[in-house]
Amino acid sequence: xxxxxxxxxxxxxxxxxxxxxxxxxxxxxxxxxxxxxxxxxxxxxxxxxxxxxxxxxxxxxxxxxxxxxxxxxxxxxxxxxxxxxxxxxxxxxxxxxxxxxxxxxxxxxxxxxxxxxxxxxxxxxxxxxxxxxxxxxxxxxxxxxxxxxxxxxxxxxxxxxxxxxxxxxxxxxxxxxxxxxxxxxxxxxxxxxxxxxxxxxxxxxxxxxxxxxxxxxxxxxxxxxxxxxxxxxxxxxxxxxxxxxxxxxxxxxxxxxxx
Amino acid sequence: xxxxxxxxxxxxxxxxxxxxxxxxxxxxxxxxxxxxxxxxxxxxxxxxxxxxxxxxxxxxxxxxxxxxxxxxxxxxxxxxxxxxxxxxxxxxxxxxxxxxxxxxxxxxxxxxxxxxxxxxxxxxxxxxxxxxxxxxxxxxxxxxxxxxxxxxxxxxxxxxxxxxxxxxxxxxxxxxxxxxxxxxxxxxxxxxxxxxxxxxxxxxxxxxxxxxxxxxxxxxxxxxxxxxxxxxxxxxxxxxxxxxxxxxxxxxxxxxxxxxxxxxxxxxxxxxxxxxxxxxxxxxxxxxxxxxxxxxxxxxxxxxxxxxxxxxxxxxxxxxxxxxxxxxxxxxxxxxxxxxxxxxxxxxxxxxxxxxxxxxxxxxxxxxxxxxxxxxxxxxxxxxxxxxxxxxxxxxxxxxxxxxxxxxxxxxxxxxxxxxxxxxxxxxxxxxxxxxxxxxxxxxxxxxxxxxxxxxxxxxxxxxxxxxxxxxxxxxxxxxxxxxxxxxxxxxxxxxxxxxxxxxxxxxxxxxxxxxxxxxxxxxxxxxxxxxxxxxxxxxxxxxxxxxxxxxxxxxxxxxxxxxxxxxxxxxxxxxxxxxxxxxxxxxxxxxxxxxxxxxxxxxxxxxxxxxxxxxxxxxxxxxxxxxxxxxxxxxxxxxxxxxxxxxxxxxxxxxxxxxxxxxxxxxxxxxxxxxxxxxxxxxxxxxxxxxxxxxxxxxxxxxxxxxxxxxxxxxxxxx
Lengths: 259, 720
Description:
The complex is a heterodimer. Chain A is mostly helical. Helix content of chain A is 76%, strand content 0%. Chain A has a domain at 80-119 and 136-258. The model of chain A has no long low-confidence stretch (mean pLDDT 86). In chain B, the strands form five sheets. Chain B has a six-stranded mixed β-sheet, with helices on both faces. In chain B, strands 10-21-19-20 form a four-stranded parallel β-sheet. In chain B, helix 6 (141-151) crosses helix 8 (185-196) and helix 7 (156-170) crosses helix 8 (185-196). The longest helix of chain B is centred in the last third of the chain and has 27 residues, at 693-719. The two termini of chain B are 56 Å apart.
């Protein structure tokens, strides 16, 4: 099955990249600052959140803005790509109804597009790092690996949600609530030290907690995640991806009847 | 296209022949073919689940699951479709909206999976199911060409290589970097078509795409498809509403109706059938009968039927007029061969013309008997002006008298004026005016009484080949038709009888309380005029049932007949029988003035049919015709009465859009009800609005087969 997917993927790669470039062109059409927004957006978000949280909550975190921007950008890579992948099949209904095309292209393309966005927002992260004079370390080389995990994980959820959303549109509404809850359940704005014990035990099962921690480790704390941590992160990603693929493959033939 | 067909002998030579008799071989040869099969659809059915499609939220789903209502309400979009497309075929799929043809195409294209059955595809497919799928109107044409190419699965180098070709075909060189939203829809269609056909597919699927864009572009697309077909031997499947296009491009076609395959065969035959019957509905029985007949062989000779029809009802009227005149001239010169030894071919004028509005059914229904009684020929006019064709008929005929039936002054005075000014031969123009059907009929009756009483010259024998100077009794028969209330039966079919026996028609359309007394007065008037039998059509509830009526008017000295329950041609013969009975009774009282006439009157088609076995077949006088008139143009049926009598024809009313009506006509020919004689000739009245070729073909097939059977039967009878 994996070889099948691989060949299909190779053949579809040009289609995916074409769609990504289309999305990219369309996203910044007619805006004066254009692609700069992908940098500005996370920066401004960071400023607002820093202002809010350092005024009201006064978390005692070193380099709080860095802590914040790392967490929020990575989390929004996951949340944006899953949300947009979820809508992908419904949005491309006209295409699915008209041409014979590998339907998996649509959710995967959305995830990939968000990855491109994330890559651009990394400039914002770099700016913050420079401001706070955090030097890059050799650990940064692990970043692509982490992004692989996150993208696989997001693609898995995206595939699952996109096929579910075709049959039950409720998923669209439920997911936004779920993402909100997940945002607060993951230590993005607050230090994990404020979490109660039972919540910490729960975090062990929160893939996003692991991914965000992984990122902070390699960027802020110059810590190399151990093999166990890497395997755990990969495990989450693989499990999610396999579930997503199975559900998608099983249901994709019926999409055309429901979209 | 024909050249292409010719260089492929396997397809059979019959495709280009348009003779009727080759149809069978076309259908037979259609199957055997040793070219490579490109698409093979085997017994494919597609079921959509209506109930579960609507359940798009969890709550509904749970409720439905609990109630075990899931998987109900199936909708079968396709049922048991099988077809085979060979290499190089251009295959058309015809059908009305919602018949399932697009579903079939999507299944072949691989977009949909069939619920049952299998589809085998050999080769790569280029589906043009909807052009420009995935175009983004914010992007430029250049970007869209790449995007659309990518979505269609073309590799990037391929698009780059053929980019110029696409741009050239679409003629968009100057606008390449303009967003697509600024393009006209025709330009967008051009780009889409160019991208879709830039590859050379084994199988090209075209769904209605040729209906976009201007004519130039459509032709260009067709040329491109032709190139693919002729140079690359591409197999093409086309879905279209445009039967002409399918006929032009395709060599084979399938017609799908209501998700069932209806007809599969050579494109021209299927298109012709579809044009005539596409979308027409009827009972399942009628549909089976008619669609079955479509595929049957046509053995009848090519001159078995003729069509007398013009562009409009007036054109038809004019042609009928000319034809009637010709035939009377011929009959007269044959009858008076001694006097006209030179074979004078000059048309014999028929001095009187009866004219009425083509849309007034009551006035029209008076035409046959007035024409019979007054030795006149019926014609129709438009209410606004006198159509040119009608005017020229009146003029060429050297008409001496025109009688205009005008109800409620619906006919514009300019009609009468035109006749007076343009027709110098018309000595008298009589207008019979009335404000209701009832009044019109009575006035017409009175008019006939008056004119024939004082003017015996009218009877110069021009109109009926076998009559001369009829006595006053012959001006109207002793049987009359009475129309009560609204009439829904097809009395048009009786027009030959009404003309031959001069059956007066009267109306009783008043539905108020005085109707009963009005009715009694009518009956008294009938009796006073010597009418003994009245056939009542229609029902007037306030008058009670016809039997009750009959008893209440027994004293009036007129017997009533109600034949509403009979099959139409039983009605026909019932009326004929009544007329025969009454006229032979009166004939017996005095010496027959014209034995020939009496004989002709007494000969029913049925008795003639049995005589036929003895009579020589070549005798033109004994040949029977069947005239088909359309319910779409009632005037035709009334106007054909003189022709029908001359040809010993009966008239059958057919609504070509109603399969039940067509099936009824078929049953009539086949002799359900009275046994009809074999018909040697068929006439269809009216233009394409009234009958189209496949309907004519079906009816001719049925009549011919029936004729052969009957003649065989006579021959056997004769042997014993």
